[in-house]
Amino acid sequence: MNHVEMRLIERVHAALRERAAETRVDQLVVGLGYTAVSLEDGGSGLAYTWRGPGKGCSHLTGLEEAEGAPATGLLDLLLSDDGLERSVGLATANAVNHARALGLPPDDGPAGALIRELGIVRGTRVSMVGHFAPVARVLTEVGVQLDVVDDAKGIGDRVSFARRLDEWTEALVVTSTTLLGGTADELLGAVPDGVRVGLLGPTTPMLPEVFGGTPVALLCGMVPQDVQALLRAVRHGAGTRQFQRHCRKVYCRVASGVGDGGRA
Known about the structure:
CATH class of the largest domain: Alpha Beta
Helix content: 25-40%
Structural class: alpha/beta
Oligomer: single chain
Number of strands: 9
Radius of gyration: 18 Å
Number of helices: 12
Strand content: 15-25%
């Protein structure tokens, strides 16, 4: 088994705090589907908007003066116990890391890098945490055996999924929103040796060093290109299908997983 000693969200924070202190927040947009942050140095980033139990009409407090302030203030929300605040923190992290992520190799298609880098072929036994419809469709066309669990969409059963992960799975595809929900560390700690793991989605922090020592072998994310168009789309409640044309899909290998090529 692989064990994560330090919370991944804490690793992301530690990796970027010095760089966050060098810039300021330009805009913060908390949309119904995604949260976006742009910085004065031109960086921008995304994260899924985590929606937990209601808190009345005030879901975020104390952020009225965030725009124009050092980016460290929003980045520190990564360490919050509140999932929505962590969304703001992770969007800020991705904004701080924007220039580096933009230089990563492009990901061709809904599952191009995933299939190629994780060695997925016909018959591969793939488990998926979070139902990515376009990715699931491509994997099905390839001819994999696919097992999916997605609590939000009422797909799959956690108990049977965990059993199959331990006994059956050859490759695991994980939504990066597990970082926001606080389940990523426990999930990765339960992955058996030899299972190839890919973390994907617009929320993904493209920081391979953060995932060293974990079973994660591949990061697949999305980097904003047309920042103003992206902010407008997020503000209007758009999801991945709507705003992806304003972004660049990229991927990055994690050295401890599948080698050094494609690393930042």
